[in-house]
Structure formats: structure tokens, C-alpha cells
Amino acid sequence: MTSATDPQPVAVVPRLIATDLDGTLLRDDKSVSERTVAALAGAEEAGIEVFFVTGRPARWMGVVSEHVHGHGLAICANGAAVVDLHTGGRVLKVHALERGTALDVVHALRAAAPGVSFGVETAMGFHHEPNYPRQISYDPGTIVAVAEKLLQEERSGSDVPVLKLLAHHHELAPDAFLTLARTAAGALASITRSSPSALLEISGPGVSKASTLALCCAERGISPAEVVAFGDMPNDVEMLTWAGTSYAMGNAHPDVLAAASGRTVANNDDGVAVVIEQILAGLPGREV
């Protein structure tokens, strides 16, 4: 495993940088440091595209929207949506979780983990069950009802694509809940996590950060070998494995440390910027 503090020669000049946000590009206070802003701008100036690839929904992308250059695109909801940040987060592509499949997952997890509660992230907003933890302020249009009602095909608005089903448990440890859920419903959908709490994120079968990033790269004629990726939590593992070069943050989950080909310093120490600066310094005729 290579380290950002011990730079190695770049075998292939990268054409695209794919970075997670929370715990990776963003500091713990959710800010983007001046050093990171400068590194992102330097990459774009050098002709290296930058994609934000996050579990966040489009409505939570304001923190980085002004730092998107060129294409203006971001991959949100763990690969379920491609959005245009230049137009306020307009959804361009959706890889939805079918409502019938989501209901099957709900039933499987209710049986496997009594006490579980659910939230439903759609292309238009967020809805949740009465006992789902309210850690943030939701939109006025939020519907509070049991998941079975929220996911009913005949309900008004049921034509709006479901991006993610979220499952929370107030007693189970996060990794234990993830293992249990994958055993109970992993054949139905993609199940992962990025929160420090026992909160799972459930997408359509085969949908991940990696699957949508691969499609975006294929459209641009960019191979995995030309991609450098960064992440810190289990929902980044597939992306880090797919990319030709990948870095786990110093604060990363053990599964991420095992999956990445390299390691950088923690998000609060601008680990993404550290690596980008090294990449730019290695380009012909460039100095940082």
C-alpha cells in the first residue's frame, strides 16, 4: 500500500479524480478548506476532471456546488442519481430502487431486525416512519408514515423514483447491522453504510458509486486505470476497488483501508488535497 506521505510515480496520468465528500473531502465541520479548493481548481486547470461521488442527495450538495468546475456533474445517493450542480442539482440520470423490491427488503429486515425503522429517499424529497430518528430538519413536504404506505405503488406520487431506502436500528452496532441486513436481504438490493450510527443505505441491485462512476467514465472514454478515487466508509469500497489508484483516508473504516491501493492523511488534514498536489507536481512541466 502506497502512502501520500511517500509519493510513488504515477504509472498512468490520471484523467479523472473521484472523491467522496463526508469524512473524505470535507472536514468534520463540513467545510472545504482553502487548500482543498486550490487543489481541486489545480486539477481542473491541468485537464483532470473531478467528480464528487457521495451518498448525499442532490439537495445536500450546496456545500460543494461552487467548487465544481467544467462538467458540473456529481454522483449522488450512492450512485442512484447523476445531478447537474450548475443547475441547482437537477437530476439527469436515475438508477432507481423499484418500490416492490424496496417493500421486499422492508419485510425481510423487519423479520431479521425487530425495531428497525425506515426512511425513503426519492428524487423529489425524503419521507420516513414515525420512529425514524429526526437528526436533521426535513423539508415541509416530508410525509411521515409506515414504510409500507410510503412505498405503495398506488399512492399519489408513487411514480417518483426511489433512490434509497434507509434503515435505522437503535440497538445494533453499525457493522453488525450491515452484516445482518446483507444476510437477510443482500440478494434483493445493494446494502451499505456511511454513517457512524446503525443506519444502512439500500439501493437497487448492482447500484453503487462504482457502477455509476464506471458509466460516466465510459461515456468519456476514461478507463479505470486513469481514475484516482478517495473514500473513508463502506459505501466507498466498490469505487476504491474499481479505480486504478485509490486512497483510503487516515480516518477510514477498516474495510476501506483493506480495499484501497494507497492511504493518505485524515480528512481534517486535507488528505485529498495532499494527494492531488503530488499528482500535479508529477505532471510534466508542472510545479505546485
From TrEMBL:
Keywords: Hydrolase. The keyword Hydrolase applies. InterPro entries: Cof (IPR000150), HAD-like_sf (IPR036412), HAD_sf (IPR023214). One of its GO terms (molecular function) is hydrolase activity. It holds the Pfam family Hydrolase_3. The keyword Nuclease does not apply. This is Cof-type HAD-IIB family hydrolase. It comes from Streptomyces katsurahamanus.
